[in-house]
Design a protein that fits this description.
heterodimer; A: six-stranded mixed β-sheet; four-stranded antiparallel β-sheet; 40% helix; B: mainly alpha; 9 helices; flat
Chain lengths: 249, 233
């Protein structure tokens, strides 16, 4: 489903991604963990060209983007259609109702029938447990509810891959669970997902594979069990120790 | 002294009353025929120009940025009255003759375009980057993102400063009197020239300007309320 080869990204002098190679199978949930500044968010944003990689290729669902060549806006937009993004700060459109947020992509961009798009949006709202909030504006919702709308908005695009950029990092602790539950359900339904997160419980419970990134490289990858319980690399061990220590403070 | 003499002189009071009554209708007519259309047309054209200028300023194309900068700088750096005089009295010397009303519309539109472009640019820049990103990730092009996501939010932010621009414009249209547009202030001048009641006529004009501007500020309040339906208070 996703095939990433030799992905590089520099911001000026600063090289943030130093060659990433990953293959992700259809239906897999991949969780990316790592210390801040390790490049994991940049990595995710490169997958739908919110950041334009400096070099390398990404293939998603049969469509290849080769970043050593210049890309036209059309090519970028076509490539973006393969995936949908859920943001740390939700980024809902504040001037639209919940329903309008979800139908905006299908109706305005994909030119789908408005009635059908609304029905589908209602079904998605049901799925994320917000069927009574269709006519609310985002400011009337809690963070957790907003993020679930964010997930529904992304799903409405019928992407081949869902990208999650620290989807629970901005939430109050008691609201994290409801968002993770929706994500878990998605994973078990066979959605292909790449999730950048600090939620180790989610990684342990829902990931097929965990990638540990540090300094712009993938340092270790494996099943959650392998990475969390038998980490091979000293940097992974150090990172996991630090996290576990803060858990017990 | 002056006021004293008016109030102690019933004949003069009566004369002033008559003049006020007979000049009221012509003033209102001039306002409806020229002041208001001049304001509304110039504002609409000016807004259009302002959006284009703002987009040119924030675009990554150097030459567009540069054109927008020069335009704004010229308009903001020279008096409105001088601009109107150049359009109406200056251009004919190089063979371009424009009638008073169109000349005024051009002058005021260019003026609004420059000032409002800065308002709109600031409003666009005030919308968080995440909104652009969200628009992009749901597949929107630049113009779709602008039309559906950014400008609707930016217009909410722009209502108060753009109302300022519009209210200023309504009053500035009085300058069109000097390029022979028979708007309200010019009519007041004409009537006063026949009866020498300057205080009365200019006072009347002032009151009508104020009523128009006050009504506009009420409209502004309504607009703000409408836009505020999607923000928490």
């Amino acid at each position: 489903m996703i095939s990433i080869t030799n992905l590089h990204k520099s911001f000026g002098e600063l090289e943030v991604l130093k060659g990433i190679d990953v293959n992700i199978e259809k239906g897999q949930t991949i969780v990316v963990i790592g210390p801040s500044g390790s490049g994991k968010t940049t990595f995710l944003r490169c997958l739908n060209i919110l950041e334009k990689p400096s070099a390398g290729t990404v293939e998603i669902g049969g469509l290849v983007a080769d970043f050593s060549k210049p890309m036209s806006k059309k090519q970028i937009m076509a490539f973006r259609k393969q995936s949908a993004m859920v943001f740390q700060h939700y980024n809902l459109f504040p001037h639209m109702t919940v329903l309008e947020n979800i139908t905006e992509g299908p109706v305005t961009v994909q030119k789908k029938d408005k009635k059908q798009a609304e029905q589908k949006a209602q079904a998605l709202l049901e799925k994320v447990g917000l069927s009574d909030k269709a006519d609310a504006y985002p400011y009337q919702l809690s963070g957790g509810q907003q993020q679930r709308v964010g997930i529904a908005r992304a799903l409405a695009l019928e992407p081949k891959v869902m990208l999650f950029d620290e989807p629970t990092s901005a939430l109050d602790p008691e609201l994290v669970g409801e968002v993770l539950q929706v994500m878990k359900d998605l994973a078990s339904e066979g959605m292909t997902m790449v999730v950048v997160t600090h939620e180790m419980r989610f990684a342990k419970g829902a990931a097929d594979e965990v990638l540990f990134m540090d300094s712009g490289r993938i340092v270790e990858r494996g099943t959650p069990d392998a990475v969390f319980n038998r980490p091979q690399e000293p940097r992974t061990q150090r990172f996991l120790n630090l996290i576990q220590n803060t858990d017990t403070i | 002294m002056y006021l004293n003499s008016i109030f102690s002189n019933p004949e003069r009071m009566e004369r002033l009353g008559d003049i006020a009554q007979s000049s009221f209708l012509p003033l209102i007519e001039a306002a409806v025929q020229f002041t208001l259309p001049l304001s509304v047309i110039s504002f609409i054209l000016g807004l259009f120009l302002a959006v284009l200028t703002a987009l040119a300023r924030i675009s990554t194309v150097r030459i567009l940025q540069w054109i927008a900068r020069v335009y704004v700088s010229i308009i903001r750096g020279t008096p409105l009255l001088v601009q109107l005089f150049i359009l109406f009295y200056g251009l004919p010397t190089v063979g371009v003759t424009i009638d008073p009303f169109p000349a005024a519309v051009i002058g005021f539109s260019l003026n609004v375009g420059a000032y409002a472009s800065e308002v709109i640019r600031a409003a666009i820049l005030s919308i968080p980057k995440g909104q652009w990103e969200a628009a992009n990730t749901i597949g929107m092009s630049y113009s779709q993102a602008l039309r559906r996501v950014i400008l609707p939010q930016a217009s909410r932010v722009s209502v108060p400063p753009l109302s300022n621009t519009f209210i200023s414009l309504v009053k500035d249209t009085s300058l069109a009197a000097l390029i022979l547009v028979t708007e309200m202030f010019r009519v007041a001048q004409q009537i006063a020239a026949t009866n020498y009641e300057f205080l009365l006529l200019y006072g009347q004009a002032a009151v009508i300007y104020w009523v128009i501007c006050f009504s506009l500020s009420l409209v502004q309040g309504q607009l703000e309320n409408r836009f505020d339906r999607y923000v928490s208070r």
